[in-house]
């Protein structure tokens, strides 16, 4: 799993900020992916992304 790989790399001495930013991006993408189908089910037919 990618998160486990990132945590292992962090322990191997990579700076914490880039790893944290990457984990944050993964979390954001996961939240977006989880909420997007719910929005479509609610009848939102327009794409809200710019």
Keywords:
mainly alpha
What does this structure look like?
The protein has 50 residues and is an all-alpha fold. It has a domain at 2-6 and 14-41. It is 72% helix and 0% strand. Helix 1 (2-11) runs antiparallel to helix 2 (16-41). The radius of gyration is 16 Å and the shape is elongated.
Number of strands: 0
Distance between the termini: 31 Å
Please, how many helices? Answer: 2
What percent of residues are in strands?
under 5%
As a percent range, the share of helical residues equals: over 70%
Principal-axis shape: elongated
Tell me, rounded to a whole number, the average pLDDT: 69
Q: Determine Rg (CA atoms, Å).
A: 16 Å
- Structural class of the helices, strands and pairings? mainly alpha
Sum this structure up briefly.
With 50 residues, this protein is mainly alpha-helical. The protein has helices at residues 2-11, 16-41.
Secondary structure: elements and pairs:
Elements (H helix, E strand, L loop, with lengths): L1 H10 L4 H26 L9
Helix pairs in contact: 1-2
């Amino acid at each position: 799993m990618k998160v486990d790989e990132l945590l292992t790399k962090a322990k191997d001495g990579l700076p914490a900020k880039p790893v944290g930013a990457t984990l944050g991006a993964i979390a954001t993408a996961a939240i977006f992916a989880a909420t997007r189908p719910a929005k479509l089910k609610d009848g939102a037919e327009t794409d809200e992304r710019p």
